Amino acid sequence: MALEHSRRDFLKVTLASSAAAVAAAKWGRPVLGAPAAGTRGAASGPARAGTMARGGPTGPNVVVTARSRVALTAGEDRADIAFKALKTFEKEIAAAIGNKRVVLKPNNVVVAKTLACSDPKNLEGALEFLKSIGKLANTVIAESGATVPTLEGFATLGYNPVAEKYGVKMLDLDNEGYEVLPCFDQNDLRPHPCRFSKLLLDPNTFIISAAKLKTHNLAICTLSLKNIILGAPLKFGRVNDKSIVHGGGAYGIHYNLASLATRLAPHVALIDGYQGMEGDGPSNGTPVEHRVCVASMDWLAADRVGMELMGVDPTNVGYGVFGSQNGMGQYNLDLIDVVGAPLKDNIKKYKQSPLIDRELQWMQPSPRP
């Protein structure tokens, strides 16, 4: 299969994206957008009417005035706050699922470090919600674990009793087939073939991203989108395609996250902030006792609220900037209705990765001509 595109074309797109990002950072908040028709992101949230506006030197960006809704819950019961956050969208989620297969996708990075992984109580809250709307029968918990065999990781993390309680299957995405998609690498400015989960790419799959509030040592933070995009590449023996999606650095990872979102964005974002991670994330950070949970059918709006909760400047997060410029969701906090717990009362400033200077390099012109 010939996957290499024109190096010149890829370079043009990459430099244009970088220029737009620099402009956004210089002029304030990024130009904002909504889900574009025909993309996976569009299916993730409500339809948004919008207009096209000039977005600076790179040409048009999608700008909308329609509002998004994000649920924010707070409390001492991890499962309960997840359940209540999802309940905000009860009718919308039930209608969107229809007869589709539901994949509850946790974030399992280094299983030996439970802080880095989705907690079984968060999954329990999501499954209790799916039970309440009659959508458990066709639900699975599925992941491609980053470091150990997936089902072994599930057992270590305590997922088995939760799956048994609700009668849902657990799947290793590595065994469910794949589709090859190109991923950009900043080191050679070429697309490279990467094997992605066929199940997550299936249009008859409804994805719930059970993510966490965490800092990240390359992408600033790990929220709902990154949980899916970096979980979808598969492992085959000693070959792990997840490394390809990291794109060789701060330029490549944000480009890949934004471009792959058109195929792999979650339909529902569920971000567990009961105990977040700060510092050297996504696996070596330290805990933040935060006691919150975020949910939305607009993944970009959910991630934007997650950034606010962590005290992260949204103009520093490349995939968020690119996603808003390309109409994938709402990124303007002024156009996001946060329902439930007051946002201003639940913000905690997370310590950033010690590699933050490297992470912000995506905002500068590409080092390659």
Description:
This protein has helices at residues 7-27, 40-43, 78-87, 90-97, 120-132, 150-157, 159-166, 198-201, 224-229, 242-245, 250-264, 299-310, 318-325, 356-359; strands at 50-54, 60-64, 68-74, 101-106, 139-143, 169-172, 178-185, 190-197, 205-216, 220-222, 235-236, 239-240, 268-278, 286-296, 336-340. Helix content is 34%, strand content 25%. Strands 3, 4, 5, 6, 9, 10, 13, 14 and 15 form a nine-stranded mixed β-sheet that branches. Strands 1-2 form a two-stranded antiparallel ribbon. Strands 7-8 form a two-stranded antiparallel sheet. It has one domain: Rossmann fold (3-Layer(aba) Sandwich), CATH 3.40.50.11440. Helix 5 packs parallel to helix 7 and helix 11 packs across helix 13 (318-325). It is of the alpha/beta class and 369 residues long.
Q: Termini distance?
A: 28 Å
Q: Residue-averaged pLDDT, rounded?
A: 86
Q: What gyration radius follows from the Cα positions, in whole Å?
A: 19 Å
Number of DSSP-assigned strands: 15
Assigned CATH architecture:
3-Layer(aba) Sandwich
What's the name of the CATH homologous superfamily? Answer: LarA, N-terminal domain
Percentage beta strand: 25-35%
Uncertain runs are 1-59
General shape? globular
Measured as a percent range, the helix fraction is: 25-40%
Number of domains: 1
CATH topology (fold) name: Rossmann fold
